[in-house]
Amino acid sequence: MEHSVVYFLLLLNPHIAEKFRFVFLAVLVTIILTTISFIVTRKLETIPKGKQNVFELIISGLLDFMNDVMGHESKRFFPLIGSLALFILTSNLLGLIPGFDSPTGNINTTASCAIVVFFATHYYGFKAHGIKYIKHFTGPIGWLAPLMIPIELVSHIVRPVSLSIRLFGNIFGGHLVLASFAALVPLIVPLPMMVMEIFVAFVQTIVFIMLSMIYISLSVEEAH
After folding, report:
1. Which residue spans traverse the membrane (predicted)?
2. Burial class of residue 59, CB neighbours in 10 A (0-12, 13-18, 19+)
């Protein structure tokens, strides 16, 4: 947005605010999630109610989804996948608030998330298999290794690129279309577009974490 709330919050020159606004917004999302987490977990009750009940439903729903994709060991990956899911979804939705932008509407933010997934994938792979993790890159037949290794390396390098571009493109493009409609037509007309953007925000979050879970699952399973 041309006149973002960030300019007023940073009290900086518009050119400087433009350069760093997505960093500030990403930090803002982190602060929001951290604050909510602190409030919810400050006084946990055996029988949840109110806000605790809401967030336990969210957590249990996400865990069920992870179990469907990753199996019974999914719980140990929850800190990573859960954090990514909440951060990306909140970032996607933030751009629907007038005066704010989505941090995920910037390629640097989405690339950062994708790089975290990239390194986590291989960390878990080496942790599960040790040096034998290399077999994931050599293929099932030894003499095919010189051919398979370059192919596998390119395939793994492309993963964070596709993750980051897919999320960035959908969020940036969607908000751009919504802003264009809001500028050209009365307020009531863009409302269906806002509903669509909310739907896209959830779908893109699911796609990102699902692919992340698949990549991690492939890294920890036995090579064939």
Report:
1. 20-41, 77-100, 106-125, 170-191, 198-218
2. middle
Contact 70, 77 (CB under 8 A): yes
Q: Residue length, the chain?
A: 224
- Phi/psi of residue 155, each to 5°? -60, -40
| pTM reported for the whole predicted model | 0.85
Look-up of token digits 């602060």: 31
Q: What is the pLDDT of residue 182?
A: 63
Based on the number of CB atoms within 10 Å of its own CB, is 64 exposed (0-12), middle (13-18) or buried (19 or more)? exposed
Number of domains in the chain: 1
Q: Are 224 and 176 in contact (CB under 8 A)?
A: no
**Apex 66 CA angle, 61 and 69, nearest 5:** 130
In the chain, the largest separation of any two C-alpha atoms, in whole Å, equals: 66
130, 179, 186 from 174: Cα distances, Å: 43, 9, 18
Q: Residue 3 — pLDDT band, cuts 50, 70, 90?
A: very low
Phi, psi dihedrals of residue 190, rounded to the nearest 5°: -70, -10
CA distances to 51, 163, 175 from 42, rounded to whole Å, are 11, 35, 36
Print the domain residue range for 113.
5-220
